[in-house]
Amino acid sequence: MKRLLLLILPSLLCIPGQAQEAFDRGFEGKNKVFIPGGSLGIGLSAAYSNNTVGDAAEGYTVLPSHVADIRGGWNSFGLHPYLEYFLGDNWSIGVRFDYTKNLFNLDNAALSLNNDLSLTISGYNYQRQSYMGAVAMRYYVPFLGSRIFGWFVEGGLSGGVVKSKNYTLEEDGAKHGTYQDNVRVALGLNPGICFFVAENFDFEVQVGLIDFSFNKVIQTENQVKESGAWRFNASEKIDLLAIRFGVHVYFDTRRP
Predict the structure, then answer these.
(1) Average pLDDT score over residue span 186-203
(2) What are the Cα distances from residue 207, in Å, to 81, 101, 152?
(3) 137 and 154 in contact (C-beta within 8 Å)?
(4) Is 106 within 8 Å of 86 (Cβ atoms)?
(5) CB neighbours of 74 closer than 8 A, spacing ≥ 6?
(6) What's the pLDDT band for 88 if we cut at 50, 70, 90?
């Protein structure tokens, strides 16, 4: 019996060692270098939208007998250049400038809830311009070793000012409204995906994920009354309004 145990025990001890193998999920792949160090990247994303509702003769109806005679429009424009330099393989440091402009005007809108309650809005205007700059660091990861598809994570510090005003036009042509300056500083984490369509040219999609921001607001009403406020925001959800579509061109600045 003792001899049998001595024969079985070494076999049992060897089984776990023989069964264990190195676990590899395959993220590394064969090609670990997605964008080599020493490269210079220049990127640009832009957006434009123009919308008009109704015209001078006939307004647009949303809900018959409730929301009708709508005349107005809105448009937006955004320009976001980006410059990055790769200090090492797959990781870079860069700077970005963001400019956005939004215009909205509501010439007329009629709201009727019942025969006794109705409301008409006319001559309302809203304008907003944003000037933001950012310093960011990116790390790129090839997808399953591919040199065409990859994803990246960007973390950076941004700051700037957002100027906005909303006003209504009175019958005598005078404007009644509020002007607002918002000084904003934010620390964000933004992931994205990219794919190359040529040797040094790619498309990318980026979305806001985590954002910590401090905002100081200075508000002036009719250029007379002044007030202010400040707020701190911490957001950890996907911001669909912060989705960016852009293109990048890369140049190899390494000496041959």
Answers:
(1) 91
(2) 16, 20, 11
(3) yes
(4) no
(5) 49, 51, 102, 103, 104, 105
(6) very high
**Largest Cα–Cα distance of the chain, in whole Å?**
112
The alpha carbon of 95 is separated from its chain's Cα centroid by a whole number of angstroms, namely 15
Candidates 45, 129, 123; CA nearest to 79 is 45
The SS3 call for residue 93 is strand
**Rg of the Cα atoms in the chain:** 29
Closest CA to 61 of 111, 132, 113, 121: 111
CA proximity to 41, closest of 253, 205, 254, 251: 251
Q: Does residue 24 carry a pLDDT above 70?
A: no
According to the model, what pLDDT value does residue 29 have?
A: 52
Amino acid at 107: D
Residues of the chain with pLDDT > 70: what percent?
74
Question: CATH for 31-252?
Answer: 2.40.160.20
Q: Note the residue count of the chain.
A: 256
SS3 for 10?
A: helix
Structure tokens at 136: 């960011």
